[in-house]
Amino acid sequence: MSMKTLRFLFAPALWLSVAALGIAQPVLENERVIYTGFEPRLANMEKIEIQPVIVDTLRLPKEGKYELNQIKIPTFYIPDTLAVRRMGKEPLEKLQRFYARGGFGNYTTFLGDLGFNSVRNKAHAYSLNYHHYSMNGSISDRGNPALNHNILSGQYSHFFKPLTIQVQGGYHRQGIHYYGFSPLNASINQDSTAQVYVHAHAGLGLSSRHRTDSIFPNYTANLNFKHLTDRYGFQENHIRFKGELNHFTDFFAAEFFGLKSVVDVWQFADLSTTSNAHVVDVNPYLRLGRKSWNVELGAALAGGQNDSSAFLYIFPRISGHWNIFSKYIIVHASLGGNVQRAGYSELIHENPFIQRIDSLATQQRPIEFRAGVKGAFSNDVSYSAGISFVDQRNAVFYSADSSKQHRHGFSLAYDNLRTTEIYAGLHFHRGEKLRIGLDASYRIFSLDTLPQAFHMPALQIRALGAYQLGEKILAKADLFFIGSQFSNGPNGTVIELAPTFDANLEAEYRLTKGLSFFARLNNLAAFRYNRFYRYPTIGFTVLGGLTLSL
User: Fold this and answer.
1) Strand, coil or helix: what is 343?
2) Are 115 and 99 in contact (CB under 8 A)?
3) Rounded Cα gap, residues 27 and 535, in angstroms
4) How far lies 354's CA from each of 118, 299, 532, in Å?
């Protein structure tokens, strides 16, 4: 088949197909499709209306002119008026001017107290007090242990702006009996065992009232006089001056530069002899610290004369404390030394049964070391614990003396003593309602010549308690334990005194604010323990009475 024949056959088929497509797809209104040849052309474009700009790197500076306006605009300030505010305060407890207490008990015991004092006053304060206590007891296989005390004391203080002046004085008559013998000995007259001590004292004190950071130094000065006599013609006079001068600066760490001084003068006399002694102690120091720590650095120059023997010593005196953790852990320590001389007044206060001797020795303490920790477990519970070591020359001991048949007492023995002590304490308090305390100490003694430290117990434990039930009832308890101690016996023997326990109770019922009743129970266990050899204590005693305050 030729090419023309094929075009003749396919041409009608092609036109029929095109016509069919035109019928199958309807033409939109106002729309025409024109088939023509290709005509290339460019579409119209909108021009960007941004003119070219030439960037010039050279900028001419613009000069500005500034001037201050001299016109003053008036301002006005009127503070607001504050209303007067008054600080709230709790009402002060009313003070009483007059106090009286009286009571009696077994063993013909009498107690009496009288007091008269000033109330609150910005210019002065004064007080006058009298105390009486007497007992006529009895102890099997011992002499008459009767005793009596009459004490009259008073003081007056006047407050000036720069200083305070204080005057004080007192009188104490103390009567005892030497009862350390068997009453079966008919040759001993009861009156010959009596001893009477008369103490009289007077004092004058001055103290400054400057602020700590004042330009003026602060000072204290006290002059005291003591006079002691006994029934047998002995007398002792003691004059003491004690003063301190210090000044506060803040160059390094809030430091104080100060000077402490103590001067003691004794004069002893009896019917046949007279002796004198004096000790002077001068202690310059530097005390510095902050809120959590404090250190005192100083040295002491101590010298004096005891009868015809003179002496001079130099001791370091260093002490300090450090609050490691607020009030809960506080560490403290001290190292120093001193010279002391106990007079008969101090010795009689501890042991009234001593026999007088013509001369007293001076005690030197070249080493006194103490260290410990204290603090609180909580707001109610506090504690303390520590250790100390003291090296003492010419330490005083009470040695049993039977040389005087009608007065079996104690003479004085001297020896070098080194004492190591460990102590601890725990205290609980809940305001004024409840207080409980427990303290214990244990001492180790080392001597040169004496076999034992006479009448010095190694172990001591004491418990104290006080409880207040409302405003009406107050109860107190005092319990203590004293370990074994030793004394010299006949023919150079050493006697061990048994350990002892004692318990004392006191209760008070307040009927009104000014009137109350009280009762005391002493030595509840009724132990006849020997605090001193051949001198047992009285057994169980009870004392009751009333208290009045106006």
Assistant:
1) coil
2) yes
3) 147
4) 39, 35, 11
* pTM for the predicted model, two decimal places: 0.80
* Element (DSSP H or E) covering residue 350: helix 344-350
Question: For residues 485-514, b (16+ Cβ closer than 10 Å) or e, as one string?
Answer: bbbbeeeeeebebeebebbebbbbebeeee
Are the C-beta atoms of 431 and 400 separated by less than 8 Å?
no
Q: Which two tokens stand for residue 230?
A: 């006994």
Beta-carbon count within 10 A of 55 CB? 4
- Cβ atoms of 392 and 420 within 8 Å: the answer is no
Task: Work out the burial of residue 422: count CB atoms within 10 Å of its CB; fewer than 13 is exposed, 13-18 middle, 19 or more buried.
Answer: middle
pLDDT digits (tens, 9 = 90+) for 146-193: 999 999 999 999 999 889 999 999 999 999 999 888 776 656 677 788
SS3 content of the chain, % helix, strand, coil (to 5): 5, 55, 35
Give per-residue pLDDT as tens, 327-340.
899 999 999 999 98
Distance separating alpha carbons of residues 319 and 192, to the nearest angstrom: 51
